[in-house]
Amino acid sequence: MNSPMFSFQWLPFVCLIFLSSVSATLINIPRLSPIGGKFLHDLETVSASISDDLKTFYYDQTLDHFNYRPESYTTFQQRYVVNSKYWGGATSNAPILAYFGAEAPLDGDLSAIGFLADNAQQFRALILFIEHRYYGKSIPFGSREEALRNASTLGYFNSAQAIADYAEIITHVKETLHANYSPVIVIGGSYGGMLASWFRLKYPHVALGALASSAPILYFDDITPQNGYFSVVSKDFKEASETCYQTIQKSWSEIDKATSQPSGLSNLSEEFKTCRPLSNSSELKNYLESVYSTAAQYNHPPDYPVTIVCGGIDGAPSDASILEKIYAGLVAYRGIRSCYVNEPRNISETTVGWRWQTCSEMVIPIGRGNDTMFEPDPFILSSYIEQCRSIYGVPPRPHWVTSYYGGHDIKLILHNFGSNIIFSNGLRDPYSTGGVLGNISDTIVAVSTVNGSHCLDILFAKESDPEWLVMQRKVEVRIIKQWITKYHADLLAYKK
Ligand SMILES: *[C@@H]1O[C@H](CO)[C@@H](O)[C@H](O)[C@H]1NC(C)=O
Ligand SMILES: *[C@@H]1O[C@H](CO)[C@@H](O)[C@H](O)[C@H]1NC(C)=O
Ligand SMILES: *[C@@H]1O[C@H](CO)[C@@H](O)[C@H](O)[C@H]1NC(C)=O
Ligand SMILES: *[C@@H]1O[C@H](CO)[C@@H](O)[C@H](O)[C@H]1NC(C)=O
Ligand SMILES: *[C@@H]1O[C@H](CO)[C@@H](O)[C@H](O)[C@H]1NC(C)=O
Ligand SMILES: *[C@@H]1O[C@H](CO)[C@@H](O)[C@H](O)[C@H]1NC(C)=O
Ligand SMILES: *[C@@H]1O[C@H](CO)[C@@H](O)[C@H](O)[C@H]1NC(C)=O
């Protein structure tokens, strides 16, 4: 079983995730990124062709939108990127599609999040990408080192400040373009999707509607069962292959058994071809857990990483031991490498930033009972709080998200309040368990796909996309068009 330090639920959400950054040794939480490992290659070619149309700007952003202390007035440069190639212009009140950066530098999103560019032409829309504060080039306090120094400087790093930033930049862009009556659709994935949906509720005068892709806004407090995340990971593997699921389920005690032998760890290090000798069995277990979680979260077509892992496990020679099969699965997923498991890497901005975010505001209680293919590892709030306090000197506020944005009884609360939000999910994404999966009203709707993965709908469309994904995007576009058409009619009726 994991020591508490390792049981931290900290894999970020980014729509994009790169394995090297998933298995942060210190912390181990499913990430919330929109983009997963294997997409990167395709994306680079895409970005080369679109980058000519992108113009980068910096906005003088206010450090603290909510107080009037001298320090609050400090400013920093916040990056945003505009593509006006398809825009119909201010005179026709043509729309703006605004993407909300999440817990990563904006660069990866520019080359991966295709929903805006793919649809800008038919909407005659301006495209706007905004970077989240404390990531990439949008760093307050003059340097990253200073910004991340301690809780005094990190204190301005939270979602309320971030969406206030977005409101200011959208307003600024509209003023600059004299596009006061251009409707704005905000789009985000994962944590960025949460921001988009919350933004529509808090800033209806700035955004006409929101597309919130894979946004687990209900994975707070006790709204979603702790084991939601890992039960979907397990289900994905079971559906791909029952024998693969069973092999993984049995492997944890095999690792323990191997470790308890004399020179067991060095034997395991050899068997898994680790880059450095293993210090303990958790090092291997955590790594394998993050491989399976990442494969499930980013289980996208056409390659379906879960199928790849299970192909390796099931394809091992029939006399292979359980751990030899596990190793074969790892090699199938990661490819032939000089070594595995504790590969040298630099800790990513996402890992560092998300650690603070999850230790302050974004407390997402992911734990495991005995109903998954993993070892039990319950989420224990009190030890989580203590670990965060020991890192940052201040404790998290696990209930703030639901106090500030809501979440409990969401259908009861929102069916009569709010409008124009699409919650899109792929039900093979483990984070979908914390998503909105049912329609709340005529205009707060859930658009899910049975076989979809994390943030799939907002990535660039590809030739090889299956029909269900093409359909999901079509439904989303149709709904957004309805919002805009209604808005333009309202504009004629109300704006005298
Ligand atoms: C953070 O660091 C600064 C500069 O070293 C110091 O003045 C401040 O008191 C520190 N804050 C906390 C909470 O430790
Ligand atoms: C190492 O593992 C292999 C098979 O997994 C086993 O046959 C061998 O006895 C082990 N060696 C040691 C020194 O534990
Ligand atoms: C296991 O080894 C890793 C890497 O050396 C170390 O960071 C961690 O604290 C160890 N965990 C336990 C439970 O001893
Ligand atoms: C880590 O970052 C340094 C400096 O940017 C770079 O030279 C090095 O190759 C990186 N290492 C890995 C493993 O990515
Ligand atoms: C799983 O946990 C439940 C509740 O703690 C317990 O009743 C059940 O016996 C456990 N099942 C197994 C297979 O250990
Ligand atoms: C919710 O409504 C949308 C739009 O009408 C529809 O496409 C979708 O299938 C509905 N979702 C559910 C879960 O019923
Ligand atoms: C989802 O995938 C499974 C097999 O992986 C397939 O049998 C099923 O038809 C798919 N469902 C949809 C709605 O495409």
Automatic annotation (TrEMBL):
Keywords: Glycoprotein, Hydrolase, Protease, Signal. SUPFAM superfamilies: alpha/beta-Hydrolases. Residues 1-24 form the signal peptide. InterPro entries: AB_hydrolase_fold, Peptidase_S28, Ser_carbopepase_S28_SKS. The keyword NAD does not apply. GO terms for biological process: proteolysis. GO terms for molecular function: dipeptidyl-peptidase activity; serine-type exopeptidase activity. It comes from the Eukaryota. Belongs to the peptidase S28 family. This is Lysosomal Pro-X carboxypeptidase. It comes from Quercus rubra (Northern red oak). The lineage of its organism: Eukaryota, Viridiplantae, Streptophyta, Embryophyta, Tracheophyta.
